[in-house]
């Protein structure tokens, strides 16, 4: 078996062990301390694979609802599900909580959204990268990031020359690859017509997503590809926002109606979810495991 196929096959065993179990709460500084400001001390949740290091790692950036459920007070099941899949493949996961350390609750509603916090999240991602690179078990040059919705938008900002969160003096190995699920701010109006990620990026969206629409996101991705970016974009027919959230029933979130009067629709699409798992497996096998 060729090496890359062997790695993908290794990733496939996660279907039998897709629950992350080894969790360690850690703290590290965001790189948001600019102009003499004190950096924010963030909470993180580290999930390590069972195999010995050095192993690659992925930074998780949660959605607008936060990382910790306000009902169960546990980590959201979507992030736990993906952490289990990545751990089973030999990849460590560091989930970043950008909200609780800043005293913020949800940012899905018009009244809850905080632009200033949203724009600091790329600096959180780089703070997580720096922290991971201090761990001897982590392969410091093989770290990726995955973001969902608001966190997906943070991924896109982190890959921009503007507001990337990366200090001008940053000299460590950069992120190796990134995945953005139904990302916020995915449009040329928001990112500019010169937005060109310098690392491989996979964008996965639902074709019927009314919260983070697919059409402007595809236009942004296509423009970046024409400028030479290594970018893959895929839209799932019939799928809505949160299509990869296990067992999430379709529902309309009237309390999160947008300023334009759009009522967000969320729900798992099992077909899209299964395909997304395969695409992410292949993508990470190529860029982090190889």
Task: Please explain how this structure is put together.
The chain has 290 residues and is an alpha/beta fold. It has one domain (3-31, 39-289): Alpha/Beta hydrolase fold, catalytic domain (Rossmann fold). Helices cover 29% and strands 20% of the residues. Strands 1-2-4-3-5-6-7-8 form an 8-stranded mixed sheet, with helices on both faces. Strands 9-10 form a two-stranded antiparallel sheet. Helix 6 links the parallel strand 6 and strand 7. Helix 1 packs across helix 8 and helix 4 (121-132) crosses helix 5 (150-158). The longest helix is centred in the C-terminal third of the chain and has 20 residues, at 270-289. It is globular. The protein starts with a helix and ends with a helix. Residues 1-17 have low confidence and may be disordered.
Task: Provide a compact summary of the structure.
The chain is built from eight helices and ten strands. The protein is of the alpha/beta class and 290 residues long. The protein has a single domain, classed as Rossmann fold (3-Layer(aba) Sandwich).
List the topology elements:
Elements: H1 3-12, E1 23-29, E2 41-47, E3 55-61, H2 77-88, E4 92-97, H3 115-118, H4 121-132, E5 138-148, H5 150-158, E6 177-181, H6 188-191, E7 201-206, H7 214-226, E8 231-236, E9 251-252, E10 265-266, H8 270-289
Parallel strand pairs: 3-4, 3-5, 5-6, 6-7, 7-8
Antiparallel strand pairs: 1-2, 2-4, 9-10
Relative strand content: 15-25%
* Tally of separate helices: 8
- Helix and strand run: HEEEHEHHEHEHEHEEEH
CATH class membership: Alpha Beta
Average the pLDDT over all residues and give the rounded result.
92
Oligomer: single chain
- Return Rg in Å: 18 Å
Classify the helix fraction into a percent range: 25-40%
The total tally of domains equals 1
Strand order of the largest sheet: 1-2-4-3-5-6-7-8
CATH homologous superfamily descriptor: Alpha/Beta hydrolase fold, catalytic domain
CATH topological fold name: Rossmann fold
What overall geometry do the principal axes of the alpha carbons give?
globular
The count of strands amounts to 10
Classification by helices and strands: alpha/beta
Through-space gap between termini: 14 Å
The largest β sheet comes out as: 8 strands, mixed
CATH architecture: 3-Layer(aba) Sandwich
